[in-house]
Amino acid sequence: MNEIISASTSRREFLKNTGRFAAASALAGATIPYVHAAGSDALQVALIGCGGRGSGAAANALSVRRGPIKLVAMADVFPDRLQNSFDNLKKQFPSQVDVPQDRQFIGFDAYQKAMDCLKPGDIAIFATPLAFRWVHFTYAIQKGLNVFMEKPLTADGPTSRKMLQLAEEATAKNLKVGVGLMSRHSRALQELAQRLHDGEIGDIVLLRGYRMHGPVGSAFSEKWPGQPSELLWQIKHFHSFIWASGGCYSDFYIHIIDHLGWMKNAWPVKAQALGGRHYRQSPDGQIYVDQNFDVYAVEYTFADGTKFNLDGRCMTGCNDIYASYIHGTKGFAIASKSGDCGQPSSTYKGLAPKRADLIWESKVNRDEQDPYENEWNDLVGAIRDDKPYNEVKRGVEASLVTSMGRMAAHTGQEVTFDDMLNCEHDMAPSVDKLTMDSPAPLVANAEGRYPVPMPGITTKREY
Ligand SMILES: NC(=O)c1ccc[n+]([C@@H]2O[C@H](COP(=O)([O-])OP(=O)(O)OC[C@H]3O[C@@H](n4cnc5c(N)ncnc54)[C@H](O)[C@@H]3O)[C@@H](O)[C@H]2O)c1
Question: What distance in angstroms lies between residue 151's CA and the mean position of ligand 1's atoms?
Answer without folding.
Answer: 9
